[in-house]
């Protein structure tokens, strides 16, 4: 399909190199850690604030909804502001939001803090995810994109398990304080390592965004994103109660399995980053099949520590490549001057999928239990596989 052919990308005249890419990756790591921290804390948050696991899952749903609603408008809201300055301000907002979450005396205040987290993380991700072509020479863009999205995968390795382990040691509030400290550190790294990044395109977004959504390749990539991300987060938001119910695991064992999942996710991210530029459809088909298969098999073979470990590794390998795989697809389907627009659209849809998945997963968990939840999530991932295969046949 012509829409997925290679297109030249514009690189700033003085590409600053790997150190600045690592600073951006630190930002994506921090925002995804901030967003995902409640995943490992739902049980203690619910017990402390007097709400059930499904209700506690709203801490993820609200963040995703806010990020989905605001991310597509971030480039326009930022206008001609330097993107480096905007990123630093958003990281500091993220730090303040997590301190508020740590202090929250009731569930309402915690949700308000998570709204601010959504504003910060949606903005950072929308501006940061498409920066690779501006930071490195064209030949290094695929590796730099994988590194930036490696921050997303690394958040699963260190972020979610970190929250679970900190909670086990000193309580769930301390986990949010730790995330606030990470956000301040990432802001300092950006201030020190990023070059000035003036706005790369005009501030008007509406007509360009509508034009992007009207392209078949972009619409297909967005459809795959919403199905796959919704299915994943319907299951992953409640992975702690799922593992507790299915395999009878305690907090320490759950933290270990989340660590295994995250390590596999980093490997999957870089593997997909190497393969996706040459074969975006085939890469996404493999990833969707891996997520669907692993999630569907948890109720059957995740009843032991060993079985759950294997499935979490497969799940991590598959889902770890989704962000960079879809981003590569959408960048190839868009024009050379549309990276910021298509990235903002992707981030909005991605976070909408997170919110929808967490909400739907909470409903299924509260009404039917964790077993049907995994079947529901696997069905959505299988639907994403179907859309990807259809696109592949159409492309041929």
From TrEMBL:
Which membrane topology term applies here?
Answer: Multi-pass membrane protein
Q: List each copy of the Major facilitator superfamily (MFS) profile domain by range.
A: 20-396
CDD domains reported in the protein's UniProt record: MFS_NepI_like
Q: Which UniProt keywords apply?
A: Cell membrane, Membrane, Transmembrane, Transmembrane helix
Where is this protein found?
Answer: Cell membrane
Q: What is the lineage of its organism?
A: Bacteria, Bacillati, Actinomycetota, Actinomycetes, Streptosporangiales
Which chain regions cross the lipid bilayer?
21-43, 55-74, 86-105, 111-136, 148-170, 176-197, 217-239, 251-272, 284-302, 308-332, 344-365, 371-392
Chief site of localization: membrane
Under the heading SUPFAM superfamilies, the entry gives: MFS general substrate transporter (SSF103473)
One Pfam family named in its UniProt record = MFS_1
Source superkingdom:
Bacteria
| Name of the protein | MFS family arabinose efflux permease
Q: Which PANTHER family match?
A: CHLORAMPHENICOL EFFLUX PUMP RV0191 (PTHR43124:SF3), PURINE EFFLUX PUMP PBUE (PTHR43124)
